[in-house]
Amino acid sequence: MSKGKDQKPHIGIFGRRNNGKSSIINTIVKQDIAIVSDQAGTTTDPVKKSIEIFGIGPAIIVDTAGIDDSGELGEKRVQKSLDTIKTIDCAMLVIVNNEFGFYEKQLIMQFRDHGIPYLIVHNKADIQPVDDITLEKIKDFSQAKVMDFSVNQPERLPVLIEALRKTIPETTYQKSSLLGTIIKKDQVILLVTPIDSEAPDGRMILPQVMAIRDVLDNDCICIVLKETNLKQYFDQNMPRPHLVVTDSQAFGFVNSIVPADIPLTSFSIVFAHLRGDFENYLVGTPELSKLEDGDRVLILESCAHQVSCEDIGRHKLPKWIKEFTGKELTFDIVSGLNHVTDMHTYKLVIQCGGCVVTRKQLLNRLKPAVDAKIPVSNYGMTIAYVNGIFDRVTQPFSV
Length: 399
Prior knowledge:
The protein contains 14 helices and 14 strands. By secondary structure, the protein is an alpha/beta fold. It folds into 3 domains: 10-172, P-loop containing nucleotide triphosphate hydrolases (Rossmann fold), CATH 3.40.50.300; 188-270, 3-Layer(aba) Sandwich (Rossmann fold), CATH 3.40.50.11420; 277-391, Rossmann fold, CATH 3.40.50.11410. Helix 8 links the parallel strand 9 (243-246) and strand 10. Helix 11 (312-325) runs parallel beside helix 13 (379-386). The radius of gyration is 24 Å and the shape is elongated.
């Protein structure tokens, strides 16, 4: 399954084999996008499908393999289903025939561990509805909503959709503002966007595009320029900006030109405030000063991309950190949304801005480090710290 490429709410469908998970998905999306069969184990790898839910809007629904799959291959399928929990915003647990036991509790404990809201759907209710004994059994273990459903009773679909809408956290589908908490109407916002070999041909990177749109949505004046024109901008007495947002890689240069009384931050830090683990970044970043010879640092990229000699995560960041600390350090880089199991071997974890993933995906990716009390930071904050301007570039968010 391709993960981390879509910021829409992700809804995972879980349950035992042959519980009708794929049939429910086909009913919701009103087309046969998931294979349906009476043979248990038809769904193998998790499968994603874009849908539109009334009252929510665009979303991604994820069909998973049966949690009770068996055998060596089945165990791998189950693990993939469990790994999917780290990437979703809410879950639907499907049961049938009033079966609620070990497998369902295993899933619910995973939902709880990752902070995933969920509802329980008793499927094939036209054959056998949920009974009071099952409801009591569920109630003893979970406070989730339980409802009957059947794909053969289409009148039940609106009720299921409404229950799903109430389960999905509103924050996952409500429009969020990148800069709305730190800018005001009619202010001048200056965006500094360097163009190097890492910049895509003929277009701007997603954080820059989103920032431009957000400035306009907040009824502000947006000025965009390269760092090579920044000194000229101030020398010519152009409109004084109320905020300067730059690419983190240009922090040192931009900081030397922008007057100290003008708020300064970066695209990466703006994204960290909106979507990342901002408070833990604030606490974890200064731990850079405590690194010792032989320490290992983990760098997490959220997207896969072509690597060049100017790559920030793989080349520039390790170089700058080594120069700042003067220590012999080991750096490991993990891209995509792959998770690291031996997190305890690291002294610091540095996450990229996360512009192509959801907040839930990013937080769950950092969760093993946070739980292990390993300091976490992000690209922008780390670069600011090694440039000696950490307090300046985080100050706009403390007001």
